[in-house]
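F.,

This is the one I mentioned.
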């Protein structure tokens, strides 16, 4: 099988480019990097890296603060 160090998540309500960009900017203010997957043909999806628990906790906290 194949292994990857990232995965894609679907984010309902972020299909509109301006919504996704706004959320990306907000997360970046917290040091969180995500990639919009629209160019892969997956609007409303982001690519996230597989990271250690401390980074996962930071993403969770940043997301909950929205």
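My design for it:
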């Amino acid at each position: 099988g194949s292994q990857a160090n990232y995965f894609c998540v679907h984010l309902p309500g972020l299909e509109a480019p301006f919504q996704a960009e706004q959320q990306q900017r907000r997360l970046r203010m917290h040091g969180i990097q995500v990639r919009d997957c629209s160019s892969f043909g997956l609007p409303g999806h982001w690519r996230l890296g597989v990271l250690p628990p401390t980074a996962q906790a930071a993403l969770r906290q940043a997301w909950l603060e929205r």
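The CA atoms of residues 4 and 50 lie 8 Å apart.

Talk soon.
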